[in-house]
Amino acid sequence: MPLFMVRREVFEWVQHGLKTVELRKGKAKAGEQAVFQCGRDIVRARITEKREGSLPSLLRSFPYDQIIPTARSVEEAEAYIRGLYGATDGTFAAYRFRT
Predict the structure, then answer these.
(1) Separation between Cα atoms, residue 56 and residue 14, nearest integer Å
(2) Among residues 21, 44, 79, 89, which one has the fewest Cβ atoms lying within 10 Å of its Cβ?
(3) What sign for the dihedral angle of Cα 55, 61, 65, 71?
């Protein structure tokens, strides 16, 4: 069961159903249920799909606004993710989920 520690902003997106795809650097973790945690607050979600690949390919595979709801373009979504990880090279995992 993947545990995703997230910022308050991201937690609220998940909680309100605005975010339905989580992107993480590295290979996909095993499990069919995801747990999003911010402080003591937790939201559980059912993982419906997993994919691995480069960040650009995953951003083309899923609507960018389901990954970063405030982004107005793929470039803005990529910039947000670059701000989190510093670099956007390597393997990323995408988890489509339903709360």
Answers:
(1) 22
(2) 89
(3) positive
